[in-house]
Amino acid sequence: MSNISCLFLIDSTGSMGWVHRTLRERLAMMVNLFDQEGVRVDFGIAAFRDALAEPYTAWLPLGFGADITRQEQFLHSLTPEGGGNNRGESSIYALVRGMEDLVWPTDTRRRVIAIFTDDKGHIPDLRINSWQELSGKLTTNNIEQIHLFVTDRKVAWYDPLSMTPDCLIVRHPLSKDLNQLEASIRDFVKTTSVDILDDSSPLLDRTGTNPFEEIDEYETESELSMDVFSDMEEDENIFDDDDIFDDIAGGEVAPVVAERTKDTRVPREKPSDLAKQGSSTATTQQKEESKKVLPEADFDFDWD
User: Fold this and answer.
1) Domain locations in the chain?
2) Distance CA 109, CA 269 (A)
3) What is the pLDDT of residues 222-247, one digit of tens each?
4) DSSP collapsed to 3 states, 7-74
5) Which residue did the predictor score with more confidence, 122 or 218?
6) Given 3-state DSSP classes, what are the helix, strand and coil percentages for the chain, each rounded to the nearest 5?
7) Counting C-beta atoms within 10 Å of the first and last residue's C-beta, which end of the chain has fewer, N or C?
8) Looking at the chain, which runs of residues are DSSP E strands?
9) For the domain 4-209, what is the CATH code?
């Protein structure tokens, strides 16, 4: 009998190749860890990119039922590429497709989803319009836990997931430090396996609070969604400027002010201005100025 069904949703954009390798090398280890906990686990796997940028490559499912060797081959076959350069990937779209499109094992006591990404998601996205809609889908599909393997700079974007009271949100640092990552995997196995979680359980969020009820200044859900986007930091890209993006989201663009030394050069007149000034219409002042610049010379030629 399968005790736990766990779906891995894996970002397959350009920066995630190291995660693919790490998971491929540690799948067997995770199975052994679950065995040590006395739990049988069925892993399902699907990869995602950015549905808003390229919907045809945004969903790459293997699903449940494959053995470890086939799962490792699938992870090896993933090509880390793409990404829409639009401040997020389609992790929430993948979450919905994973719940609704894949065939989950029926002999399970717990449904778990683990998301591996170094970026935010999109709300709205294809097949999902709001956090509240997502909350209803999580409840309908009996998702009991969501484990976020997300970088520290992006994980706060996923906080509205906690609005589903019966779905436990667990945060694990996504780090290239393999010791820390293996510790996160062990925490994941432990938390997923036990039925009663005490205060010593790692990185848990049991609040079950609804962020829309706690933040009075937001009148609509869409306003909160936009604020979530504007508050998060961006990828480390030399062309990114978070403050400018935030100002754009708020309807204002901060002017760029550069310090420079005082320019003492006399500005030249524009050609259009010169065209308007003929010799017959020159002002007396202009004539006088011309005399100063080009004084008349007293030529005394000897014609002999």
Assistant:
1) 4-209
2) 81
3) 444 434 434 433 333 333 334 433 43
4) EEEEECCCCCHHHHHHHHHHHHHHHHHHHHCCCCEEEEEEEECCCCCCHHHCEEEEECCCCHHHHHHH
5) 122
6) 40, 15, 45
7) C
8) 4-11, 41-48, 59-63, 110-117, 143-150, 168-173, 204-205
9) 3.40.50.410
